[in-house]
Model the fold of this input.
Amino acid sequence: MEQKGDLKFPVIAVNNADTKHFFDNRYGTGQSTIDGILRATNVLLAGKNFVVSGYGWCGRGIAMRARGMGANVIVTEISPLKALEAVMDGFSVLPLSDAAKIGDIFITATGNKNVLSEKHFKSMKDGAIMANAGHFNVEINIPALNKLAKKVRNVRGMVTEYTLKSGKKLYMLAEGRLVNLVAAEGHPPTVMDMSFANQTLCTQYIIKKGKELEPKVYDVPRDIDEMVARLKLASMNIRIDTLTAEQKKYIADWTAGT
Ligand SMILES: NC(=O)c1ccc[n+]([C@@H]2O[C@H](COP(=O)([O-])OP(=O)(O)OC[C@H]3O[C@@H](n4cnc5c(N)ncnc54)[C@H](O)[C@@H]3O)[C@@H](O)[C@H]2O)c1
Done:
């Protein structure tokens, strides 16, 4: 909107604050997505092939937590950088069309649409489970799944069974909506507090400085981000060290050292 000149007022991208996406997206979504899958299905994660599409902040949290439960985690990505990070974090990386053949549980966290689609449904194993923790209910192509199905029925509160014309059964959790919000309780307040603190402090900042800002997208001011981190640490009774005057001078001095 900014680039097209359609933005009529200044916007602060709170999601870009480190104290937002490092924590809410990663540890919040990581935990609550697993919680949603378990509450919906009571499936055993240990030993399962668990496919995570998207290795952004949410995806890496989900992958990390699924691995902790004993799942064999496979990551799919479109970004070479994120794929490389996933590999070096110790995950298998595959194109989704290959992962589709071996996955037991699929979870999307890409912010994109139709990530899991017709060709994947066709090659999935009987009994595969799908859920989304990313954007609305568009990451899994539900209309395409409906077209392939000869029978659709609800088999548990949050589980829809699709019997395909081939006879294979696939399972969708929470109608493809955000599984952590629909089938569980979302993130605990002890991680959302930082997101809400950013929103509140940025609202206060806009009230004070808004008139000086142009209709552009701004990052959260660094001092607000750091204040949120400091307050969070204090609330956890965790203290950290401070630089000595000598250290401050040393790290700011390009002529020092090699
Ligand atoms: N469930 C929740 O409570 C919750 C919380 C925070 C964010 N979100 C949502 O989750 C989504 C992801 O957020 P994020 O912070 O991880 O974003 P991000 O930008 O850090 O990560 C998204 C990743 O998906 C990858 N991607 C895009 N299209 C893809 C495709 N077709 N196949 C595979 N990978 C693909 C991108 O390369 C990127 O690495 C967003 O839509 C966000 O709004 C959900």
In short: Residues 18-41 form the longest helix (24 residues).
